[in-house]
Amino acid sequence: MPIKAYTGAASFPVDTADDVTALVDLLGRAATDSRLRNDLSDHFAYVAGVCPEWFRPHQEAVVTQFLDGFDVSFDNLYVLLNGAPTSCVEHLERRLRNRWSFREASALAAIGTEPALTAIADLVRDGADPQEFEDSGVWTPSTGPAQYRFSPHRRAIEFRSASGPAERLTADHPVGLPLDQIVRHPDATALVWHYLSLRLAEVPGMPDWPAGRVHLVSPKGSVGWMLTAAVDRDGFWYDEVVTFDEPPENDDDDFVDNDDQGSIGAVVLRPYDDDLVYSNGHVLLTPGVFGTAGGPAIGLYPNPHCRSCDRLMFHVVTVQNYIREYGHGWRSLYLCEECRLTTCTATNWN
Ligand SMILES: [Zn+2]
């Protein structure tokens, strides 16, 4: 089977379970061949999106023998390794207690079974840095096993333009919503820009939430900020707190008008299947796709903790700023379902 960079579903050479076996057979060589390793990671992103069940028979061999050649980002890794047998958990925990390895910690977090989550909690309580798992969206409470703070079900976020302003008000997942739909007093808020809202119940695996929709919005600022707010029973935001990595430049000429600038439309939630384009380990080269709801955050930055109860917040969605052009970098939305707090973050590309 030829291994080549993957640029579209039609050219992808994974058609049968035997093709996945052939990919796994290359992992030993990939440990010392970085180019092969990169090509394989794209193929495994496709397998995670389209046919993860074909990978299941290989979980144990990959975890115990071929992890060095298996360079797969966590949002694909947790799909491929999910539910791996307890022998894998024991192997990884033993190795991690002997010598810490990011790759093995990620593999343990990806398994997600009760024994795996218990092993993570034991490692953290015995002195491992909790951040090693929290960056993947896995939180260790003071007692009990670790917890996934993301839905295991991913949906690609595709933007579609609206024909007029009325359409965005009635859409399930609008883009470019007027700010008076989010806060009761639009002239007394730090919000200046709406990226998107999601009807949470339509993304499987999300927590219960008092309001129909959750909102991803921005204060004035290009990147490196975090915005947290409480949500009342009608879904309106109050008690906002904005923090910046660096003090923002105070430039009043940089006027932003959410209601008169930028595109408007709605988001469609697409399943991961072979209609998406898998490249560089992600689906963002699919026309119209700007991010993912469900799954973990991108893992390059710390996930926020709840400002009230300190629990790691639940990741809902991450999109590129291009979905509605303002600022730059990644925009992510998190929740604490217990405290009814919502947090939006803006992080740089890498
Ligand atoms: Zn909380």
In short:
With 350 residues, this protein is an alpha+beta fold.
Structure description:
The two termini are 33 Å apart. This protein has helices spanning 17-25, 27-30, 34-50, 59-65, 74-81, 86-98, 102-111, 114-125, 131-134, 165-170; strands spanning 138-139, 147-148, 155-161, 174-175, 191-199, 213-219, 225-231, 237-244, 265-271, 289-293, 314-320, 330-336, 341-347. The chain is globular, with a radius of gyration of 21 Å. Helix 4 runs parallel beside helix 6, helix 6 (86-98) runs antiparallel to helix 7 and helix 7 packs across helix 8. The model is unreliable at 1-11 (pLDDT under 50). The strands form 3 sheets. A 9-stranded antiparallel β-sheet has the order 4-9-3-10-11-12-13-7-8. By secondary structure, the chain is an alpha+beta fold. The protein has 2 domains: 9-148, no CATH class; 155-347, no CATH class. The protein is 26% helix and 22% strand. It has 10 helices and 13 strands. Zinc ion (ZN) binds next to loops.
Please specify the SSE layout and strand pairing.
Blueprint: H1 17-25, H2 27-30, H3 34-50, H4 59-65, H5 74-81, H6 86-98, H7 102-111, H8 114-125, H9 131-134, E1 138-139, E2 147-148, E3 155-161, H10 165-170, E4 174-175, E5 191-199, E6 213-219, E7 225-231, E8 237-244, E9 265-271, E10 289-293, E11 314-320, E12 330-336, E13 341-347
Antiparallel strand pairs: 1-2, 3-9, 3-10, 4-9, 5-6, 7-8, 7-13, 10-11, 11-12, 12-13
Helix pairs in contact: 3-5, 4-6, 5-7, 6-7, 6-8, 7-8
The site of zinc ion has 8 residues, from loops.
